[in-house]
Design a protein that fits this description.
heterodimer, A: 274 residues, alpha+beta, 5-stranded antiparallel sheet, B: 223 residues, 4 helices, 30% helix
């Protein structure tokens, strides 16, 4: 994409029928550090890569609890993400106050999408520069949605956004058919493996990633660093040895589901492209 | 036609009494479970006690519809606090919030007479007592509701805590053991049920201490 005479205002169409400002906003999402989400029938796991400005600073908070049954991971302008999280929290609280029951995720993402659309049709506003992976549980099951700056939203079995997310998406594409029946622990493992794909060679440690889980009987919460490091240690012997690593992993007693995963790992996943 | 006065009131009084007693490392909050209107009983089994936070419990007598609305309002505010601060509200913080919430409706008040009880940040028991528009004070013990005129003098007799206006500043906390405080509360309600028609049926007692929140019930006179 390059500068042209139709990209100054969000309210100006290009002759080809595009709104360039909205597309530029979606570029902002691609610049943010990676966030991934995947779901089974009963659980959803969100993960993200922590980016810190320098070694001296703390990292950006990219995963937010919205309610006991809903959480969100963001990529892009984290300030916009923070503001939208606050909006989502308020909506959940107000709905709970009026109806004494949890806000269905499907309703929340529509409200979020409508809010984003407003910013694409006002000359004095700009689109939100953040993509949101909304994970939520309601009566109809476990859901994962992706909300764009454009005002569109889609439901996914698994998805990744942000920089180098294509590597994670490739990993998820190969394995998503197994996710629906995965156990919660396998889902977390898959999330960490997907995060590792985006790191392109860098060692996966709990200090550079954040993982959160929500599921049936499990309110949304962020896993603490120790737990995450233990899971990483359990499956990662050496970063590149995907094949042999799968065998001891299955033997580590993760049950039949892991054996299935182990099988598909051997044939499905190619070593990381470095 | 002679001048007429309004004969519809937005308020009703559902009666009942509440008590709270603070100890060195515990707090006892109790209320009866009778809900009435006029000279009738609506139900014998209605809880006037609400848990606002991990270490903070509120008992309210008065107009229960307003009490319910107030409880919901505080619960929503507490959720926002938890999202922003990543922790539960302390009892003194909740006490201030309750006061502000009540005063917000200074010109159409919540008809709710509250006592707030819990543990402060150091684990010591604390009790806060309110009027309908948010004036509050930290005390060692308090009672509100239809039986408070009968209960308060008795508590004064047993527990009188020194005035906070005196110098040197003395502790507002009761030197009773937890079991003794619970016994005292039971006695107090048994007496109040004798003479106050709006107090009776069942007594709900909530005890907050380092182990968490415990609840017990005691039968009262049903007449």
């Amino acid at each position: 994409m390059f500068r042209n005479q139709y990209d100054t205002d969000v309210t100006t169409w290009s002759p080809a029928g595009r709104l360039f400002q909205v597309e530029y906003a979606m570029e902002a999402v691609k610049q943010g550090s990676a966030a991934i989400g995947l779901r089974s029938k009963t659980h959803i796991v969100l993960g993200c890569v922590n980016k810190a400005n320098s070694e001296l600073s703390s990292h950006q908070k990219k995963i937010f609890k919205v309610d006991d049954h809903i959480g969100v991971a963001i990529a892009g302008l984290t300030a916009d993400g923070r503001v939208l999280s606050r909006y989502m929290r308020n909506e959940c609280i107000n709905y709970g106050f009026t109806y004494e029951s949890p806000l269905p995720v499907g309703r929340l993402v529509v409200q979020l999408a409508d809010k984003a659309q407003v910013c694409t049709q006002r000359s004095w506003k700009r689109p939100y520069g953040v993509g949101l992976l909304v994970a939520g549980l309601d009566e109809s099951g476990a859901h994962l949605y992706y909300n764009c700056p454009s005002g569109n939203y889609f439901e996914y079995q698994a998805f990744a956004i942000g920089s180098r997310s294509q590597a994670a998406k490739t990993y998820l594409e190969r394995r998503f058919e197994n996710f629906a029946d995965s156990s919660r622990d396998d889902l977390v493992k898959d999330a960490l493996m997907a995060i590792r794909e985006t790191l392109q060679g860098e060692t996966l440690k709990s200090s550079i990633c954040t993982v959160a889980v929500v599921g049936v009987g499990e309110p949304f919460h962020i896993l603490d660093q120790e737990t995450v490091q233990q899971i990483i240690d359990a499956f990662e012997i050496v970063g590149e040895q995907e094949g042999p690593a799968a065998e001891p992993d299955a033997a580590a007693g993760q049950g039949a589901a892991a054996a299935d995963q182990g099988g598909s790992t051997d044939e499905g996943v190619a070593p990381m492209d470095i | 036609m002679p001048k007429q006065q309004a004969n519809w009131s937005p308020y009703d009084n559902n009666g009942g009494s509440c008590v709270a007693v603070a100890g060195a490392d515990y707090c006892v909050i109790a209320a009866d479970t009778r809900m009435s209107t006029g000279y009738n009983i609506l139900t014998r089994d209605y809880s006037k006690i609400c848990k606002l936070a991990d270490k903070c419990v509120m008992a309210s007598s008065g107009f229960q519809a307003d009490v319910k609305a107030l409880q919901k309002h505080l619960a929503a505010r507490h959720l926002i606090y938890q999202h922003q601060h990543n922790k539960q509200m302390s009892c003194p913080a909740m006490a201030q919030l309750l006061s502000n919430t009540l005063y917000y409706k200074r010109f159409f008040p919540y008809y709710s007479f509250n006592v707030l009880g819990g543990l402060d940040n150091e684990g010591k028991g604390c009790v806060f007592t309110y009027d309908a528009v948010g004036s509050y004070e930290k005390v060692g013990y308090s009672s509100q509701g239809s039986g408070s005129t009968l209960i308060m003098p008795f508590l004064d007799n047993q527990l009188k805590s020194p005035s906070p206006l005196l110098l040197p500043v003395q502790d507002a906390v009761t030197p009773l053991a937890e079991a003794e405080a619970v016994d005292l509360v039971k006695t107090v309600f048994a007496s109040a049920s004798e003479r106050d028609i709006y107090t009776g049926d069942k007594l709900e007692i909530v005890v907050i201490n380092a182990d968490g929140i415990g609840r017990e019930y005691m039968d009262l006179r049903k007449d």
